[in-house]
């Protein structure tokens, strides 16, 4: 570097000398003061020329670098995929699109899912118009996230098999078909006495959900939409989570954290214990104080009063051993539903809490 500066200095001196050589004849015969002025003008002219050339060169280099960087980043961006995007070799994009366009091929199961055979049986969840992407960058982010979700593998996590985009709107998600339907459907049937789900099955559901949630949180993914309709059950009441990590806004709100997912899990655990909907007026009757109400406050009120047994679904009461497990689960639900996120346990803590209630 030092040698380069020395060479540039020599070059400047040579240029000055050559320019002065051209001007020497002009200053001969003139006064000493006037000659010095001419020399200064020549030197100044040379220095300004060098400075201007340097600035121009640096500017051109910066512009070129920015242009190359922009082109490189543009080329690295993944293309926006349209139509059915399939991750499973058992699903044909053409057959999937044909099924979506036909009202006769889709059979409604439960409240939110449809099923069809392509010939592999699949479940489709049609989404609300809120999954419209407002910009190209949002579309790319959502598609990248969907591809990440398709790569997740866990026994209690439903693998995304395909999705369909059209006119910047995520129309539907495709999963493997689960014959029993969702937890929401099962709970409704139990209220209507059309289905009986014992405590062992309900605890199995809770354990499976928290294990899947732990896997997501370990992968730095939040669920955002954990609720009974997004928990599918197989014939043995083994749960699988769907719609993991999806949110209608871009980017997702920063106030939503892992502890928000824990609160949602607490609601599901409360539903499994009581058999009641979170909006049931019963949860407001006991806690009609100025502190407000809700399932969490109702659970805490019963635990503090020593009446946790009153929270249990009457169809579950019977065996003393199971009642002890259920009463402990009531305490766990109450903690998950704490008003302060910091007071809620993590999935690292909840997995052993629930698995130790029973041998799974």
From TrEMBL:
<dbReference type="InterPro" id="IPR046959">
    <property type="entry name" value="PRK1-6/SRF4-like"/>
</dbReference>
<dbReference type="GO" id="GO:0004672">
    <property type="term" value="F:protein kinase activity"/>
</dbReference>
<dbReference type="InterPro" id="IPR011009">
    <property type="entry name" value="Kinase-like_dom_sf"/>
</dbReference>
<dbReference type="Pfam" id="PF00069">
    <property type="entry name" value="Pkinase"/>
</dbReference>
<protein>
    <recommendedName>
        <fullName>Protein kinase domain-containing protein</fullName>
    </recommendedName>
</protein>
<feature type="transmembrane region" description="Helical">
    <location>
        <begin position="45"/>
        <end position="72"/>
    </location>
</feature>
<dbReference type="GO" id="GO:0005524">
    <property type="term" value="F:ATP binding"/>
</dbReference>
<feature type="domain" description="Protein kinase">
    <location>
        <begin position="24"/>
        <end position="360"/>
    </location>
</feature>
<keyword id="KW-1133">Transmembrane helix</keyword>
<feature type="signal peptide">
    <location>
        <begin position="1"/>
        <end position="21"/>
    </location>
</feature>
<keyword id="KW-0732">Signal</keyword>
<dbReference type="InterPro" id="IPR000719">
    <property type="entry name" value="Prot_kinase_dom"/>
</dbReference>
<keyword id="KW-0472">Membrane</keyword>
<keyword id="KW-0812">Transmembrane</keyword>
């Amino acid at each position: 570097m030092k040698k380069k500066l020395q060479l540039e200095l020599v070059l400047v001196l040579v240029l000055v000398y050559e320019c002065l050589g051209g001007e020497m004849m002009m200053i001969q015969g003139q006064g000493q003061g006037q000659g010095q002025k001419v020399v200064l003008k020549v030197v100044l002219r040379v220095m300004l020329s060098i400075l201007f050339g340097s600035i121009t060169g640096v500017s051109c280099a910066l512009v070129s670098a920015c242009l190359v960087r922009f082109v490189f980043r543009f080329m690295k961006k993944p293309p926006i995929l349209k139509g059915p995007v399939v991750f499973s070799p058992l699903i044909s994009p053409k057959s999937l699109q044909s099924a979506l366009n036909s009202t006769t091929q889709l059979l409604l199961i439960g409240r939110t899912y449809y099923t069809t055979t392509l010939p592999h049986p699949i479940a489709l969840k049609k989404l609300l118009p809120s999954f419209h992407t407002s910009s190209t960058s949002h579309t790319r982010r959502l598609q990248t996230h969907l591809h990440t979700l398709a790569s997740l593998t866990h026994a209690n996590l439903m693998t995304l098999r395909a999705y369909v985009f059209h006119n910047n709107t995520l129309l539907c998600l495709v999963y493997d078909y689960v014959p029993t339907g969702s937890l929401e459907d099962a709970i409704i049937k139990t209220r209507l006495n059309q289905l009986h789900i014992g405590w062992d099955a309900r605890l199995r559901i809770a354990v499976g959900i928290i294990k899947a949630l732990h896997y997501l949180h370990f992968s730095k993914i939040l669920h955002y939409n954990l609720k009974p309709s997004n928990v599918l059950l197989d014939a043995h009441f083994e749960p699988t989570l769907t719609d993991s990590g999806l949110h209608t806004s871009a980017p997702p709100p920063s106030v939503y954290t892992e502890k928000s997912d824990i609160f949602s899990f607490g609601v599901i655990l409360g539903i499994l214990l009581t058999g009641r909907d979170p909006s049931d007026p019963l949860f407001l009757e006991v806690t009609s104080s100025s502190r407000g109400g809700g399932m969490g406050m109702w659970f805490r009120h019963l635990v503090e009063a020593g009446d946790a047994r009153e929270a249990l679904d009457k169809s579950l009461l019977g065996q003393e051993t199971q009642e002890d497990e259920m009463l402990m689960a009531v305490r766990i639900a109450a903690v998950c539903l704490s008003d302060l996120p910091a007071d809620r346990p993590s999935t690292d803590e909840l997995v052993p809490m629930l698995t130790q209630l029973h041998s799974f």
